[in-house]
Amino acid sequence: MTTEPHTPAPALQLSALDNVAVARQALVPGQALALGAGPAVLVREPIASGHKVALQPIAKGQPVYKYGQRIGLASADIAPGQHVHVHNLAMAGSEGTQQPGQGYVPTVPAEQDLGFDGYLRPDGRVGTRNYLGVIASVNCSATVCRHIADAFKGEALTAYPHVDGVVAITHGSGCGMGDGEGLALLQRTLRGYANHPNFAGVLVIGLGCEVNQIAPLVSELAARPAGLLASLTIQDEGGTRETIAAGKALLHTMLQQANQARRQRVPLSHLTVGLQCGGSDGYSGISANPVLGAAVDLLVRHGGRAILSETPEIYGAEHLLTHRAASPEVAQRLMQRVAWWERYAALHGGDLNNNPSPGNKAGGITTILEKSLGAVAKAGSTGLMEVLEYAQPVQAQGLVFMDTPGYDPVSATGQVAGGANLICFTTGRGSTYGCKPTPSLKLASNTPMFQRMVLDMDFDCGGVVDGRQTVLEAGQQLFALMLATASGQRSKSEDNGLGDNEFLPWQLGAVM
Prior knowledge:
Blueprint (H helix, E strand, L loop, with lengths): L10 E2 L7 E4 L8 E2 L7 E2 L9 E3 L8 E4 L2 E6 L8 E2 L4 E2 L24 E6 L5 E2 L3 E6 L5 H9 L14 E5 L11 H14 L4 E8 L7 H6 L9 E5 H4 L2 H19 L5 E4 L4 E6 L10 H14 L3 E4 L10 H4 L5 H20 L10 H5 L5 H9 L7 E5 L9 E5 L5 H10 L4 E6 L12 E5 L2 H6 L6 E2 L1 H5 L4 H16 L5 H4 L17
Parallel strand pairs: 12-13, 12-14, 14-15, 17-18, 17-21, 18-20, 19-20, 21-22, 22-23
Antiparallel strand pairs: 1-2, 2-5, 3-4, 5-8, 6-7, 7-9, 10-11, 10-16
Helix pairs in contact: 1-5, 2-11, 6-14
């Protein structure tokens, strides 16, 4: 006797508390939705895939629930079967009822020891890649840095098969700034990259007269073996051509040393994963983000670290993180960063409630609460161990939060500066973010987009949407991919040669 394959319902109710469901496919008027023990709901109007449909009457001013959490208030009366989106759903405050630390449970370590094959550096840290970096102290030296790095592309690296490449780390700042918060933030970010274990060696290049002087920048870098840390100043070298020639000579020597590195087995405590989402859609919080959260739980159980960020995109869902903070002090630090963002947005005439982008809304996300509740799912369920400012080094094991903007390249730059040696990036619309020196895995929230952009996507989470996989099953597969990528398996962005232009530090302070 054979059984018929299970056909999932055309819409998905994420919690028994929810009064809306998410369309798994485009819904048409007259279509019946039977999602539980109650009577079927008849669809009243066309509803796009990933968008919300009302399951019961919702009066104007009443809460709309998704994920078992309030995502807004009805701005008009909503009938069962109607489309719920920007035309009838408005922002409201989060529930925010959970007490700081009340839900913290220490993670029980896994019995099985897992590891990955990484590059063990002399200082004990571990890289997932073996690059050389050419780092600009100021925008005025950016082109020189790029000329030097470009000289070592393609056949120029044939003699160095154990080196992944030479990366120019350039930016648009470094001068025209005061000696304050903006400069300190830039220097912290640049030091984080210069110290990153994915760089076997680095060359720092400045113009000479910039505010962000090389000497104080380099003086606080971690020690490296002789020959793997150098600096040049264009004005002292005699000009751009002379600096490029000197830089190439230094890089040739560094390449010979870096090429001696070999991967070796190391514990998962050396793997730090930055969690990102961009180009989100109505499925991101249902499939890709929870799948990544399941993989993060496995990573933490085996001793690894994960960095959740994008403070404006946890706004309204911060209580889900403070609830599981390891201490009241950790919870307080998170709320202090949220309060800073409220003041910062107001100072510039902005509003944190107005965060979903046009692409998010086209994909079915209506309010920042809805977006934030889905975004927090990336962090899994383990305790929140620490809250860091932008680009600060990650020291605590387990899940940490780093304060960053929601703009993906700026956020990921801070995570890499903090030590992330792998990025996991969920997307529903199709972000193509690459990152050097840290590999970036793109996780598709739905199968149609994965198939359409298969040369850019690394993992398909769409099986959760159409019922082929559970979140846990997909999370286990993703965890295996994370370990393989950390051990040297190339990501799609690496195959496509992406990641040379994504270094984007957060700029604060006046430009003078």
